[in-house]
């Protein structure tokens, strides 16, 4: 396989594990966005809400690191979700210039509804793969994450 500049590219470039992971992620994200859109929430907002739910009091910078996105991306989504009354900022108990993020009741309701959609997607995957293969896939993906972090 070659590119326009004729430098060789490995013939198996599109058969790599990393490419398969990316294709799967694109498919999952597209399905999440499609299924969450009627609820007025994007997959990225779901990820932010569930992260704050699981780690209440995160700062914007901590949340950005947790989600592996830029602080600007988090700030934009936080402002949007705060404007909808789904998130609130509270003063940090020790650092007066730092604010913690917390879900509001509306945020918890929205997250609960969105999570039901995500559960349906998960169930569809498990239904097609079977319970055993789905568990194996989850374990393998966790191993991949660990290997890449160690590299």
From TrEMBL:
Taxonomic superkingdom: Bacteria
GO molecular function, one term: DNA-binding transcription factor activity
Gene3D superfamilies on file: Winged helix-like DNA-binding domain superfamily/Winged helix DNA-binding domain (1.10.10.10)
InterPro entries noted in UniProt: HTH_MarR-typ, MarR/SlyA-like, WH-like_DNA-bd_sf, WH_DNA-bd_sf
Residue ranges of domain HTH marR-type in the record: 14-146
GO BP field: response to stress
SMART domains: HTH_MARR
PROSITE patterns, sorted: HTH_MARR_2
Protein name per the record: HTH marR-type domain-containing protein
Organism of provenance: Streptomyces flaveus
